[in-house]
Batch of 4 targets.
Target 1
Amino acid sequence: MPEATAKRFLVAGVTCDGGEYNPANVKKYPPSMYFPIPHAEDGSSPTTFRLPSAVYAEFIESFFEHELEATEGFLDAPLLDALIVKLKTYVAGKQS
């Protein structure tokens, strides 16, 4: 499929910062830019994340479908809806 008509997807970057992510460290991980994702060390979280992780608001990029690879993590509809609200709030704050 030519790229002009190929599907594109917005991808939100998630970081565990090499296992160092700690939402309590608000100086390094300001809550206005880092949105924690549920996790469980035993993999029992519906997200499948095993380490504390967060969506990083500064890493939202568009990719063609063929550029995407399978990765860890799953966000259900309610979590995704909440994340979209947070990202919209972040973007609105940057534009004002």
Target 2
Amino acid sequence: MCNPCSRHFVRVLLVLALAAPGVAASPAMEQRLPASTRGYISFPCVPEFVRAWENTCLGALWNDPAMKPFCDDVRARVAKGRLYARWTLGFSLDDLAEVASGELALALLDTTTGPGLVLLVDVAGKEKKADNILKSLRTRLALAGAKSAHQTVAGVTATVYELPARFRIGSLRRVIHLRKGTLVVAASSVAAVEAVLASPVASAPGASSLADRQAFRETAGRASKDLTRAHVRWFIEPIGLARAIRGLTVTRPSRTDYLGLLQREGFGALQGVGGAAVLATSACELSGRMYVYAPGPYQGAMRLLDFPDIEASDPPAFVPENAAGFLALSIDWRKTFETIGELFDRHIGGQPGVFEAVVRATRDASDGPRVDLRRDVIGRLDNNLWMVGLRPGDNRPLSWLHAVQVRGEKSFATAIRRLCENDPAIRSVRFGEYGMLQIGVKKGKDGFTSSQAPALLTVHHHHLMMAQAPISIRSVESMPAASLVSNVGADTTLVSLKGESSGKAFLRGMFRNEELFRETFHWLRNGTKDEKAPLSKALRAALPAGLADDACGTMKKLPEFDKLQRKPCGAWVISGVNRRNGWLVTVQLPRQGGSGGMLTTERGISQQTTPARARQEPRPPRAH
């Protein structure tokens, strides 16, 4: 005779067995989306994402009391119908967070009538709430001036909204809303809805979805396997996505087809970029992995992206300990120089051999600088290009210093001086042992003047240094009392970086989270302070007048960064390694006081610190 516990256990198994088909019937969005999808972002479980986001310092920032006027202004403009959520097809973020019970995906795809934007939301268990939100959207869009009509699309009754002129951009002129079972669909065209609803979920023979594409499997698919509990997944086909965005938003295309130029220069090899991220683990606020699928051999300018893996090295000793951050990118300067020469011949010289003639004249001409560019300049450069973010003061914008270590400092400085002599657009000023060159100045009646800051170049501390702001170079004129590298023992973030990058890599970096947000706030506030500000001009060029005014008005509500009570903490750590047919880039925001490392295994993530070399794959040499 069975005891009550065993009978209860059997009932539980029966319930799970009956529920399983319902779970399996809700496929991942990449299986619903057609193979013509050029880009998408997915949140596999919106409720889990919201909970995880609120448990990060990034989520806490938006709940800061100083942010309340900004958040209230956004909500007020949405409620009054003045802000149309174009890229979420009428839905507000609050709408989506309230109605989504499972996955949410936003995608841009090619259809029979042109590019289409589509939003997919799993509302299983919240169907009535979804219907109520769709009704409220009807009222909201009507308040904004949209006209609606019903239409049958793929066998489902949909509401089609014709947007008023002030909300239109390019072919973004209408919005279609419908619910089919547990799936809410919003799209910018009927063809986009049909492409999604007709896409084979349980794949018919010969049919294809986004999940079937090799570029997707090698990028977002692989990252999802690495991070089995990912909160965000994404994928783009770079040139295809750019063409789709242009076709969707641009009414008057440029005379020059820059995307076609990139294709001819070999950048079509970038077949896919995708990744995944997980939030709020015990070790990290955020941990992400991005794969780039770019099988060789590379041709044309695409060879500029062939970065060699090299051993890790410390930041230069002149980088102060309070630096905002740095990136170290490995470059084969000899290959880069030859590739630039080929580009010069194709697009400037007009025929092969012109660049080489310039190189010979620079070396041999009696009235020239008599500098061998390959030997005296390129051959003396170290592989690492250091990009260092410096904060001259709390109220000053971030400035960047670029530096490359050189071999034979005096000989290199002499070669640079000879190359720049007698050039009226270059002025030499006193700095260090070898002086500093201001490049791009114009000579007027009262001496050298320029409408914009000239580029600055010097040889100092055994490095070639380049910057836009004089203070960037002058701030490292003397060795700092405490450098960034000397603080490694006390900075858990730098300890993490050294651990993650202990193997060979082509990219390493660290950027303090507080500095990143300080610069973002500064850019948004100052970029919209008046109509002549750069961001204001860009918004007014891209958006209808009413929307541009609303966007600029909202940005002015952002508080000064120093008034925030909950400033972001920690530092972002980034590394990149070569792998077969592309690259892997990892990004982490370690928790303060945590180990800051993530061990990726075939089963997912374990909160341990391990060198990045554990995940490196051999990469065959690329034929050029």
Target 3
Amino acid sequence: MPEKSNEELKQMARDWKKSKIRTISNSLKNFKNAEVQFAYDKDGKIYSVMANLEGQPLVLTLKISQKRMEMMLTDKNGSLLEHVYQEGNVMNFTKNY
């Protein structure tokens, strides 16, 4: 993953502060009556949970391996809204809305 400029890092930090992933994970009420699904793939563990944000059902998926961590937020139809990727000291956050 190429290095980001200071401006790109600042913009990513601003986007992260307003992200839906951050908002959902900061309050347990968003996970009321939620069911967690668990799976493995060749790289590690996958956790997926249906959450609600302002009445909108969303799916938060967390993939964890020895080398990296990923969080993906999708709508109930599977369209990717946000993606967080971290490998070592490198983090990337993207939003698709």
Target 4
Amino acid sequence: MAAATCSADLATLAFEEWLADHFRSGWARTFECSSMQIRDRVLGKARFILDHAQPAAANRRWLCEAVHAWAPLEVLFPTRDYTADCGVSGDLASYLEEIITREYGHVLAGARSVRRTAELLQADAQRLELDIAIAAAFEEAMLTKGDSAWVTHYMTMSLAIAEYLHRQVLGLSQLLSDDAVMRYTAHVSLRQREARGACALPALQLYAGA
């Protein structure tokens, strides 16, 4: 129970830090009636993880799937300098209109403008980044062996793959060789399969309250 309480406190702290940083939460807050809705939803996810029969396995799956959804958006709306990261340019925003038209037409159809679509995508990215922040904090707290360095490697490879796929759609020159992308993809896919195998629940259940 003490571990669960500690982890619940970690989730609340991560949310409060996210909320206080407009750069991290501004767009997500724009599309919610109140910040309490975001808080209740994400802490509901956290409680689901903590109450799970295998909380560490459930959390790792949540983390893997959140990163998988976040990476394609993060490379479009980068929140930090990626110049030192292999495979991530940080300049895909220059092609944003074309990417939205080609890849996010379903969102564009409802939003009715590229600008509005971009705002909605940024809001999604920020909500996912909050999920990742909480899940990463849980991973560190629940760790009993090994280390949490895999999280950074997984995120870095996911970002590089996401950039590669966007560039493929646009016909741009690639930053990574096909061989490197295949290695990254194999590593990321293995991590995802392991996470799903250790917590064999429908993905929707991991997003209780979403």
